[in-house]
């Protein structure tokens, strides 16, 4: 790692009721007053797991067994690159106390958004609460088969769906869209219509902005209660998506894809560079499938977005 990289380990500690422990950074420290997942910097020669166990013993007075990775968030500031490496805490002994005088709070997961946290924590909170798959629909050949495949994807657990139906004759598109929205709603999945703000406003559903449309938007094109997402390819688009109040962005293509022949992938290194300059939740897209979720999380992604990779019966 370059000299200006700081590796920070942080733990997601949950109690029997599923509440998450946050600690408040004390006065006089950097980011004072903000709430964080307890943890701290890895010291020279220390393994990440040992560092996390040491930090939690020092800061909370508990003895922990470090569990599964949640995600790694690279975050660039003018002076350094932070790598916030978040793990679940599998089990712990003792009663957490603010050993350094810091305030502690046990927080219901759905209330985490009410706590003011450092920018790199925002994607982590999203990763704890929101789906790690986002299906983007392929163009239908046969409408009945397409609806059956959508239903199968929902039955398989997909909870975010971007309805992308470019070039369909309007009457056919409207009928298919209405049925697809009904299926998503019945399954409790969040649906986003691609590139049709007027329809999204009228139907009260989510809107996905293709990057060309994102660049044209000067203000949030749907109400604050309607989900909004955008496709992004560079830093300027990510900044704009964040300024508009997008709930998340889809970034890629990470690998070359069948749906965009001839377009090279940006790769995970470039994905991380862009991730490090934004605090939006980001789905990685481009030649990815459910097997890639852990890798994506390791590069700071919320998870994967895919057409073929999430479409039942498609060749991944
Ligand atoms: N522990 C923790 N640190 C975070 C989070 N989010 C975030 O941006 N950070 C930043 C704040 C700090 O710049 C850095 C962690 O350093 P720290 O000051 O807690 O380090 P430490 O516990 O080893 O304490 P110190 O001895 O360096 O004072 O990471 C988070 O959720 N948890
Ligand atoms: Mg600390």
Automatic annotation (TrEMBL):
Family that this chain belongs to: Belongs to the Nudix hydrolase family.
Keyword entries, A-Z: DNA damage, DNA repair, DNA replication, Hydrolase, Magnesium, Metal-binding, Mutator protein
Alphabetized InterPro entries for the sequence: Aldolase_TIM, MutT-like, MutY_C, Nudix_hydrolase, NUDIX_hydrolase-like_dom_sf, NUDIX_hydrolase_CS, NUDIX_hydrolase_dom, ThiamineP_synth_sf
Catalytic activity as recorded in UniProt: 8-oxo-dGTP + H2O = 8-oxo-dGMP + diphosphate + H(+); 8-oxo-GTP + H2O = 8-oxo-GMP + diphosphate + H(+)
MF (Gene Ontology): hydrolase activity
EC number from the UniProt entry: 3.6.1.55
Keyword Hydrolase: yes
Enzyme class name: hydrolase
Residues in Nudix hydrolase domain copies: 4-130
PANTHER family hit by this protein: 8-OXO-DGTP DIPHOSPHATASE, NUDIX HYDROLASE FAMILY PROTEIN
Keyword Membrane: no
CDD domains tied to this protein: NUDIX_MutT_NudA_like, TMP_TenI
Gene3D superfamilies in UniProt: Aldolase class I, Nucleoside Triphosphate Pyrophosphohydrolase
Taxonomy of the source species: Bacteria, Pseudomonadati, Pseudomonadota, Gammaproteobacteria, Lysobacterales
Name used for this protein in its record: 8-oxo-dGTP diphosphatase
Pfam (any one): NUDIX_4
Alphabetized SUPFAM superfamilies for the sequence: Nudix, Thiamin phosphate synthase
Native organism: Luteimonas composti
Coiled coil: none
Co-factor(s): Mg(2+)
